[in-house]
Specification:
By secondary structure, the protein is mostly beta strands. It folds into two domains: about 180 residues, Immunoglobulin-like, CATH 2.60.40; about 160 residues, Sandwich (Immunoglobulin-like), CATH 2.60.40. It is built from four helices and 28 strands. The strands form seven sheets. Strands 1, 2, 4, 7, 9, 10 and 13 form a seven-stranded antiparallel β-sheet that branches. A six-stranded mixed β-sheet has the order 15-14-18-19-26-22, covered by helices on one side. Strands 23-24-21-27-28 form a five-stranded antiparallel β-sheet, with no helix packed on it. The N and C termini lie far apart (about 60 Å).
């Protein structure tokens, strides 16, 4: 009996540990989405609250079709009205004889309004179709808000019962929300900044993301090549699953070969192939890896004091484009980036002085939109890095990244033993010949022609 009790205790500890671990991102340890409720006024049967959603994740945004926030009421509360958002269902309001509430469901689900709604339905930071930027890419766009009037609720700080069982779809699975917690009331400054006011009551809810909850399989993969080796290391076969569906918020809901088309087929060129489906099902180009997105890292040139790498991102999903995409790379030489061409670059410092992680994203109005699969479904850039004599080498795959994330999801890397190796005959000294440059260009040309 004692052995059985100890085994159950160990299993419980492991379950709790794993549940916490899967929601922890080592490259963004403090990343989360915080939902804050500020009670701004009391009403005869409840309160009016401003609900603000802040995305504190450095490189993970909420893409179209946007967020959905849900919760369970503690008592029999209703939503009399809402500004800047709407409930997806009204529910049964038949017991109300006079004014009809906006939503009577015990478990309401709230979505953002679309851009361009009438001004009397808008509020600050609303109406973006639920799209929320990553904090590291666009802090001003990393929030969303709406105002809700709650009835049949408490009318004082002591009688208000906090909602519970919060859920967040962003836009698909992956987020887990903790319980609502009362915090010190939010303080506001008047427009002239000479007077402070504060909310009557404030509580917050913290939601964290787990890639394991979002998708059974990876949603991107990585391939490698180099100027010093003619071998192109492709994405691993079935890197994102073959013959198995996998769901993901942005719409990669079926990664199986049954939902793929050949890139040169008539269907791939037919009208309407890029039209998204209501269920978010993907239509992928048939490839050995069956990933919606591939990231290719090419070690391009070697100079005396610098070296250059080329990054190419290719979309294989005919039904999805990626607005404000992000790419995160971990590499020891990112502590000495000299220049990035065609992409924006921002160092990420999750652990203070360790500067080996950086975020790439597109230039606004130039390449911040990764188009659907096809001739325009790719973006690329080059990175120039200064060498550190103490660490720089081309041997043992050092020139390739340790991790790659696309849109906040970690990509499947090739097996380490397949990395392009440095031929024993190749000189370790700097190579500046035009032959090396020509070979690199030829490799990239082949890469763009082969999925």
């Amino acid at each position: 009996m004692e052995l059985r009790r100890n085994s159950m205790l160990v299993a419980l500890i492991l379950a709790v540990t794993c549940s916490v671990a899967v929601a922890y991102d080592p490259l963004d340890p403090n990343g989360n989405i915080t939902i804050k409720w500020d009670v701004t006024s009391w009403t005869p049967d409840g309160y009016v609250a401003m609900v603000t959603m802040n995305n504190y994740q450095m490189y993970r945004q909420i893409m179209a079709p946007g967020w959905t926030v849900g919760w369970s009421w503690a008592k029999k509360e209703v939503i009399w009205s809402i500004v800047g958002a709407q409930a997806t269902e009204q529910g049964d309001c038949s017991k109300f004889k006079g004014g009809i509430p906006h939503c009577c469901k015990r478990t309401p689900a709230i979505v953002d309004l679309l851009p361009g709604v009438p001004y009397n339905q808008q509020i600050a930071n609303c109406c973006k179709a639920g799209v929320v930027s990553a904090y590291g890419q666009d802090p001003a766009g990393a929030l969303s808000a709406f105002q809700v009037s709650v009835g049949l609720a408490g009318t004082t700080n002591k009688t208000v019962k906090l909602p519970k069982n919060f859920t967040l779809m962003g836009p698909g699975l992956g987020y887990t929300c903790g319980p609502a917690t009362i915090v010190p009331s939010t303080v506001y400054l008047t427009p002239d900044r000479r007077r402070k006011t504060q909310a009557l009551m404030t509580w917050t809810v913290t939601c964290t993301y787990s890639q394991q909850l979002a998708s059974r399989y990876p949603t991107c993969c990585v391939s490698f090549s180099s100027f010093y080796n003619s071998t192109i290391v492709p994405c691993a076969k079935c890197a994102c699953g073959c013959g198995h569906g996998h769901g993901h918020g942005g719409g990669h809901s079926d990664g199986g070969r049954g939902s793929c088309v050949m890139g040169d087929s008539k269907r791939a060129l037919s009208p309407g192939v890029n039209t998204p489906r209501k269920d978010g099902a993907a239509l992928l180009q048939c490839t050995p890896h069956m990933c919606p997105v591939r990231v290719h890292w090419h070690v391009k040139l070697n100079y005396k004091d610098y070296w250059r790498a080329k990054i190419a991102i290719t979309n294989f999903n005919y039904r999805m484009n990626y607005t404000q995409w992000t790419l995160v790379a971990q590499h020891p030489n990112l502590n000495n980036v000299t220049e990035v061409f065609s992409f924006e670059y921002k160092p990420l410092l999750p652990y203070g002085n360790i500067n080996d992680t950086g975020m790439f994203y597109g230039l606004k109005f130039y390449n911040d939109l990764l188009m659907e699969a096809g001739p325009f479904g790719n973006v690329q850039s080059e990175v120039l890095m200064r060498k550190d004599d103490n660490t720089f080498t081309f041997s043992q795959g050092w020139a390739f990244p340790r991790k790659i994330y696309f849109n906040g999801d970690e990509c499947k890397m090739p097996p380490p033993d397949t990395y392009p190796y440095l031929p024993s005959s190749a000189p370790v000294a700097p190579l500046r010949s035009t032959i090396a440059a020509g070979a690199a260009s030829a490799l990239l040309l082949v890469l763009l022609l082969v999925p």
